[in-house]
Fold this protein.
Amino acid sequence: MKKLSRQEIAEQLFAAHPNEKGFHFTSDNNAFTEKHKNDAGNHAKTLDDKNIVWVPNPKLSGDDELTDDPERDELIKRYTELYEKAPAQNMKTETLKTKIAEKEADQK
């Protein structure tokens, strides 16, 4: 069986988890979500090569999600910062505002 490259693994992961911001890859190509980045660090400690590489989701890191509405674009960016994933494409602008306000209130 062919060993998959890091890029091939990342492509499969992003296909299965399209809203994931990215993955932390250890040198043995184990992948960890942003939520589990501490686990990546702990796993890396057990390896000879302790490097961890962040592979961002290309569909979330570009301007693909931007709209013709600058206000909505800013809300999408803020939501992504707070929740570490992009909002659902069909989420209404008012819902975005509400979710952002709730998350910001929780962080205070």
User: Anything to note?
Assistant: The first helix runs from residue 6 to 16. Residues 63-107 form one domain. The longest strand covers residues 22-26. The chain has a mean pLDDT of 87.
